Amino acid sequence: MVEEEFERVVQTLCESKAEEFRLIGYEHVEAEEIWSCVSSKYHKSGQPALHTIVNDILSLKVTTFMNQLTLNAYRGSRF
Q1: pLDDT band at residue 72, thresholds of 50, 70 and 90?
Q2: What is the model's pLDDT at position 33?
Q3: From CA 68, how far away is CA 57, in angstroms rounded?
Q4: What's the pLDDT score for residue 28?
Q5: What dihedral do alpha carbons 75, 77, 78, 79 form, nearest 10°?
Q6: What pLDDT does 76 receive?
Q7: What does the buried/exposed string (b/e) look like for 30-59 if buried means 16 or more CB atoms within 10 Å of the residue's CB?
């Protein structure tokens, strides 16, 4: 898969997940924040296969996302 195509697929999935979160009341969620949350666990092991990334994005729960936001707030960083 070409890098541009990979980025397009991931961006589309992250936008979809952000829209899902907005529909349930989390109005200020952006696609970049979704990707940062999901990709944060790939730093040590490297980037997995596309199907794993797709699964991680689509199965991301609001509680996991909000926990990551909270931890980043304590650390003083924004994803």
Answers
A1: confident
A2: 95
A3: 14
A4: 93
A5: -80
A6: 85
A7: ebebbbbbbbeeeeeeeeeeeeebeebbee
